[in-house]
Amino acid sequence: MSRMLRIVLGMLLALAAAVATAQAGGRVTILYDAFGQKPGFTRDWGFAALIEHGGRRILFDTGNDPRIFAANVRAAGVDLGRLDFVVISHRHLDHTAGIAHLLSVNPDVTLYVPKEPFGIFGGSLPSAFFRRDASLAPEERYFGGHPPDELVSGTAFPGARWTYVDKTTEIAPGVYAIALVSETPGTREMRELSLAMRTPTGLVLVVGCSHPGVERIVEAASAIDPRVRIVFGGFHMPAASDAEISRVAGALHERWKVQQLAPGHCTGEPTFAHFKKVWGAAYRHAGVGSVIELP
């Protein structure tokens, strides 16, 4: 067999494999969470997942500890150098601490993050936000009385290639970052991104902590496609009452017709138990190390 024929054959095989993966729907590998029993993985509070969908490899969040994140990535056989992009749901460290390891492996990867005026991802704010007083001496005034138009904040991860998102945005064909702001006491004004991906049978939706409320996130996703096939991630209900758990389950199951659930992270043990009863065979275990095939 000639060298050229071998090259062409190799390209055809690679193309066939990519098509087969796309047709199969892809998969989600849970890289970080505090439950599960797969050998070789360390449990810790936090969340991270690798989404393989439509020929793309997307990292969603990076967990709570760079060393544990790195070890779980190795245990899963994941190559962080082969990512199309990264989505970070929000600024809390149990979703962002592993960025340090990620950048040591793949410093040029693009990270989609919530747009905030100040925070660990950097940002900027118009200097017009503060009042001026010209009666002060120059040394008593900000920037000597001549501030720049924009005040640019630093970042906890210098060199990172941030792309800021402040509204629902199609970041790749059929892949959407949904941006919402929490109105919940304790996390009010928290900006958070969720990830929605089109499939022929509906949306795959990945959430981080759902600080804005999982119902609001599903509602926003339904504007892209009313068919929500499966929801992964944390629902922020670890201390929710039985009545609240039942209400949210009813809204997701009856109003929004969510077909499958794979909850994790901060969803809460009583919420796991109730959702498992409601969804039955359509409930997916999503502990650390789990691999869930996508529709």
Looking at this structure, what is the CATH superfamily? Ribonuclease Z/Hydroxyacylglutathione hydrolase-like
Low-confidence stretches: 10-23
Query: How many alpha or pi helices?
Result: 7
Decide which structural class fits the backbone: alpha/beta
What is the CATH architecture annotation? Answer: 4-Layer Sandwich
Shape: globular
Query: Which radius of gyration do the C-alpha atoms yield?
Result: 21 Å
Report the order of strands and helices.
HEEEHEHHEEEEEEEEHEHEHE
Mean pLDDT: 92
What is the topology, as strand order, of the major beta sheet?
8-5-4-3-2-1-15
Q: Which fold name fills CATH's third level, the topology?
A: Metallo-beta-lactamase, Chain A
Question: How many DSSP E strands?
Answer: 15
Number of domains: 1
State the separation between the terminal residues, measured CA to CA: 39 Å
